[in-house]
Amino acid sequence: MPEETLFVTESDEDRETIAAYLRTVADKLDSGEPITLSAGNEDVTLEIPARPTFEVKAERETGSSGAELSVEFELEWDENGDGEPTRGGSLSIE
User: Is 23 a domain residue?
Assistant: First the structure.
């Protein structure tokens, strides 16, 4: 399936700033409000459904300059609301 990027930004931030972004997303998810992402002159507003698929991924990328670690949190859903929800094991984050 082709992919269309609606919004992208990448910047070095301190942990406190990142935590504030994630808290805002969590608050919007709790309240059922849409999430608006904006940077510069770009923005996109997304209506997150009540039961999106939640993916957590930890990766190590190795290359000539050494290893880079990452953790990714992703919410995914069908734009038109069709499809069965994906079930996985029980997630724990400590």
Answer: yes
The domain tally of the chain equals 1
94 located within any domain: no
Mean pLDDT of 47-70: 94
Quick check: 64 pLDDT over 80? yes
Residue 56: is its pLDDT beyond 70? yes
The CA distance from 52 to 43, in Å, is 21
The answer to the question of residue 27 being in a domain is yes
Residue with tokens 């919004």: 7
